[in-house]
Amino acid sequence: MFVGLFVVISLMMPRFNQHDRAVSAITGTDGINLGDAKHYIEVAGFFAGESRDSLTLVAPFSDRALAPAIASVLPGGHMTGLNIVNALAVLSACVATFFTSLRLGLGRRYSLIATALLGVSFPVFYYGTIGYIDPVVLAALAIGLLTTVHKRGWLVLVIVIFGVLAKESTGFAGVVAAVYLITSRPTIIRGRTYASVLAMIAAVGIAYIMSRNLVPGDGSGSWDPTIQKLKNNLGRPRSTIAVVLTFGLPSLIVAATGAKANLKSTFPTPVLAALISGVVLAIAQLIIASTTASLDGRLVWVAQRYLVILAAAAVKLGCDLNRR
Question: Where are the domains of the chain?
Fold first, then answer.
């Protein structure tokens, strides 16, 4: 496990702080164009007590306060602080994935495969330590799933609330937990289940409102869906390639073996429903964003959190069948 985590850290280092050591020909940035990272650096400056007049705080980036707030107290500058947080978040997601897979009965070998599929991947290399805050979302979703399968609903609630303060898409963890709860409880106690789900929705709503009031930010452009934005995204092959690479090997494994492998024999219905719902949410986010924003692989990185477990289960089933 420790060797694997060292490999994951090594994979994130070439792009740390967008210096793009030896890979600038691929990334095309080399620290020149920080992209959205510059907005998170500004938010970290706000929490560090820098003059409001010297900062340009822009929504929705100013609404995603958790990672910049932590980065503001770390050494080495705000960009470095953000990426220390991001690196730790990726490692946390890997550890949570390993223990989730163990909990679901995949065994140590296939739990390590699930972890490797998550940690040794294109998005970890490309997006892991470039000053964006998506690794924190990945970690929150991973820990949220771990607490869900351990049936610790109150911990899921806490994770989702703090996660929404990192980025709104962390709310997916709440939806996945709700799917798990609803499909795992017998009808006689579903009333209490629905009450729990409503309480989670209310708490997430409160966290969402809080996130929009922690840091003052000016509006940023239009997020309305348009055909022109869809055309622009379809005309950007680099973005399409990034999306495909982010879905990556886990999606290929599931697509190639999922139809043959009876995953229901590995996972009970609530677990399978929860994992599939996480993938569906990521795909829905991708479709919506294709008409409202500029696409890249980060939009579907959240799907990997669930795909890697499905892929490891499919590999396990295939190996088990070959032994018969």
Answer: 2-323
Centre a 10 Å sphere on the Cβ of residue 20 and count the other Cβ atoms it contains: 19
Helix (H) or strand (E) holding 281: helix 269-289
Listed as own residue / partner, the contacts of 17-22 with beta carbons closer than 8 Å and 24 or more positions apart are: 17/79, 17/80, 17/83, 17/129, 17/130, 17/131, 18/79, 18/130, 18/131
Overall residue count recorded for the chain in this entry = 324
Encode pLDDT of 225-237 as tens digits: 888 888 888 888 8
For residue 138 the two structure tokens come to 């990945």
pTM of the predicted model as reported, rounded to 2 decimal places = 0.92
CA–CA distance from 317 to each of 135, 257, 265, 312 (Å)?
Answer: 30, 9, 9, 9
Contacts of 249 (CB under 8 A, 6+ apart): 117, 121, 311
Residue type, 106: L
Contact 288, 235 (CB under 8 A): no
Over its length of 324 residues, how does the chain's per-residue pLDDT go in tens digits?
778 889 999 999 989 998 886 666 666 555 556 888 999 999 999 999 998 888 889 888 999 999 999 999 999 999 999 999 999 999 999 999 999 999 999 999 999 999 999 999 999 999 999 999 999 999 999 999 999 999 888 888 889 889 999 998 898 998 999 899 888 866 545 667 777 778 778 878 888 888 888 888 876 555 678 888 888 888 888 888 999 999 999 999 988 876 556 777 788 889 999 999 999 999 999 999 898 888 889 989 999 999 999 999 999 887 776 666
Residue 102 token pair: 């163990």
Please list the helix, strand and coil fractions of the chain in percent, rounded to the nearest 5, in that order: 75, 0, 25
CB 68 within 8 A of CB 119: no
> How many C-beta atoms lie closer than 10 Å to residue 173's C-beta?
30
Quickly list H helices, 56-189: 66-71, 78-103, 107-119, 122-127, 134-149, 153-166, 172-184
